[in-house]
Amino acid sequence: MPDSERKYADFGARQVPLGDKQALVDDVFRRVARRYDLMNDLMSFGLHRAWKDALVTAVNPSKNRPFALFDIAGGTGDVAMRVVAAGGAQTRATVCDINPDMLAVGRERAAARGFGDALTFAEANAEALPFADRSFDAATIAFGIRNVPRIETALAEAYRVLKIGGRFVCLEFSAVTVPGLDKIYDLYSFNVIPALVRAVVGDAESYRYLVESIRNFPKPQAFADMMRAAGFARVSHRLMSGGIVALHSGWRL
Ligand SMILES: C[S@@+](CC[C@H](N)C(=O)[O-])C[C@H]1O[C@@H](n2cnc3c(N)ncnc32)[C@H](O)[C@@H]1O
Question: How far is the centre of ligand 1, averaged over its atoms, from the C-alpha of 74 (Å)?
Answer without folding.
Answer: 6
